[in-house]
Design a protein that fits this description.
Helix content is about 30%, strand content about 25%. The model is unreliable at about 1-5 (pLDDT under 50). The protein has about 325 residues and is an alpha/beta fold. The termini are far apart. The protein has two domains: about 10-180, Peroxisomal Thiolase, Chain A, domain 1, CATH 3.40.47; about 185-330, 3-Layer(aba) Sandwich (Peroxisomal Thiolase, Chain A, domain 1). β12 (about 315-320) and β13 (about 325-330) form a beta hairpin. A five-stranded mixed β-sheet has the order 1-7-6-4-5, with helices on both faces. The chain has a four-stranded mixed β-sheet with strand order 8-13-12-11, with helices on both faces. The longest helix has 23 residues, at about 225-250. The chain is built from eleven helices and 13 strands. The chain binds oxa(dethia)-CoA (UT7).
């Protein structure tokens, strides 16, 4: 017996956006006093002018997301108790367990929600969007939050000039709701290649190398990155994912109103946009203000540019990061 043909399909529309960056700034001038670097080098090699740092004892990644999600709920005029599920993309969870999502739901009063953390490094928000959209498309859930946030300052060695100049703290979130007019998360190309981990990882603190006095002494709990190797793979990976997605969805670059790229390095962003054929005025950019907030960059871009995005605009979100993980997602803006 053939399956009944669905009369309509449900998509997952983004109906609200929220974001948060902490008030304390770490400028290039501050970094000049901490490591052997120069403002000019950082600006020209990365595009970063300053980043935000979450200061205060006992504050973690969930504290970046509390204001972001409360902001989102206020805009959408919903109470947190209406949220069904919260997905938190992060590599800097509050604790090894319970999950940041679990802690966050309690802090925001999402008392009817379940949730989980998703570790996809800089691509975590993209992985989360597809996962969250699937929960909506299944028909089982009506309000799913997809958040991306990292307190990178908790895993950065401020004696290592290769990494400390790049990263900052911040995060954002979107609300996904069912839509029957074709708005929302339409398609994705998502990739993973674990062989890239040698170029970008945190060595210790997991089950392979649990924390010992030696791992702490050897500074193995901080981010390790071979920047030039990651750089090369990032431009290629992001650009190829965008082109593959355009091809798959039969759209041309002219039909994409916004490229929303992971904010890791302005030269990676420009290289990706050029290869994808999207001019700079249609590329979201905030790396100069926040640096690389890992899973936070994409929702923070949406938050910063929200007033410029029009209903019906096609957005391509693209990311590349640790793992390697990378990909691109097509969204038709619905709010
Ligand atoms: O979001 C996760 C994914 N991560 C990324 O996408 C990051 C990708 N990589 C990058 O963004 C860049 O590789 C960096 C910004 C990390 C480094 O820029 P680069 O142009 O690739 O520099 P490099 O590592 O090839 O180093 C070039 C030179 C070296 O000096 P020598 O050997 O040529 O004398 C470095 O020692 O720049 C030196 N250098 C610095 N100089 C001043 C490295 N870091 C610094 C610094 N200040 N902070």
């Amino acid at each position: 017996m053939s399956k009944p043909t669905p009369t309509h399909s449900i998509t997952a529309a983004i109906t609200a956006v929220g974001g948060y960056v902490p008030p304390d700034k770490l400028t290039n001038a501050d970094l000049e006093k901490m490591v052997d670097t120069q403002d000019e080098w950082i600006r020209t090699r990365t595009g970063i002018h300053e980043r935000r740092i979450l200061k205060g004892a006992g504050l973690g990644t969930s504290d970046l997301l509390v204001p972001a999600i409360l902001d989102l709920c206020k805009k959408r005029k919903i109470d947190p108790s209406e949220i069904d599920c919260v997905i938190v993309a992060t590599i800097t969870p509050d604790y090894p367990f319970p999950s940041t999502a679990n802690v966050l739901c309690e802090k925001i009063g999402a008392k009817n929600a379940w949730g989980f953390d998703l570790a996809g490094a800089c691509s975590g928000f993209l992985y989360g969007l597809t996962t969250g959209a699937s929960l909506i498309e299944s028909g089982r859930y009506k309000k799913v939050i997809v958040a991306g946030a990292d307190k990178m300052s908790s895993i950065i060695d401020y004696k290592d000039r290769n990494t400390c100049i790049i990263f900052g703290d911040g995060g954002g979130a979107v609300l996904l709701e069912p839509n029957d007019e074709g708005y929302g998360v339409l398609d994705s190309i998502l990739k993973s290649d674990g062989s890239g981990r040698k170029y970008l990882h945190t060595h210790a603190g997991g089950s392979v190398h649990p924390t010992t006095e030696e791992t702490v002494r050897n500074r193995q709990h901080y981010v390790y990155q071979e920047g030039a190797a990651v750089f090369k793979h990032a431009i290629k990976g992001m650009a190829e994912a965008v082109v593959e997605l355009l091809d798959k969805t039969k759209l041309t670059s002219d039909q994409i109103q916004w490229l929303v790229p992971h904010q890791a390095n302005i030269r990676i962003i420009e290289g990706t946009a050029e290869r994808a054929g999207i001019p700079s005025e249609r590329v979201m950019l905030n790396i100069h203000k926040y640096g690389n907030t890992t899973a936070g960059t994409l929702p923070l871009c949406l938050w910063d540019y929200e007033s410029k995005i029009k209903k019906g605009d096609h957005l391509i979100l693209a990311a590349f990061g640790g793992g390697f993980t990378w990909g691109a997602t097509l969204v038709k803006w619905g709010s």
